[in-house]
């Protein structure tokens, strides 16, 4: 079940993207599961079609879903690639943190701020 909190500072597309990603990663949504159409999900959640479209695009870019033209969007079997990318990024981040001498607690606060801001990582560069 997807819940969008209109009072949240996190943009709706990011709330949707994060919830779907979590459901895919914890296998609540199994590989091969067909997702609702963008229009249908937008109507169900009371969101703009473009908002849902952006969430789907970002999930596709992360390798968590794949779109098969008119057949729709499905949970991808390549989702593990996304996890591996995240592991590599975390290792790179840890090396940067160690190199500049930032302590673990501050490093975690930086990551939490990045994750909750709804901003793409490139905006923090």
TrEMBL record:
Keywords: DNA-binding, Transcription, Transcription regulation
Domain of life: Bacteria
Pfam family, one: GntR
Domain HTH gntR-type: 10-78
SUPFAM superfamilies reported in the protein's UniProt record: Winged helix' DNA-binding domain
Protein name per Swiss-Prot or TrEMBL: GntR family transcriptional regulator
Originating species: Microtetraspora fusca
């Amino acid at each position: 079940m997807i819940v969008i909190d209109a009072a949240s500072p996190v943009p709706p597309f990011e709330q949707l993207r994060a919830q779907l990603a979590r459901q895919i990663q914890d296998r609540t949504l199994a590989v091969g599961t067909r997702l609702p159409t963008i229009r249908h999900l937008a109507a169900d959640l009371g969101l703009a079609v473009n908002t849902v479209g952006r969430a789907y695009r970002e999930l596709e870019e992360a390798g968590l879903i794949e779109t098969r033209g008119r057949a729709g969007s499905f949970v991808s079997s390549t989702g593990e690639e996304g996890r591996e990318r995240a592991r590599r990024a975390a290792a790179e981040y840890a090396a940067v943190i160690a190199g500049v001498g930032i302590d673990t607690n501050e490093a975690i606060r930086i990551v939490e701020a990045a994750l909750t801001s709804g901003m793409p990582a490139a905006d923090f560069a």
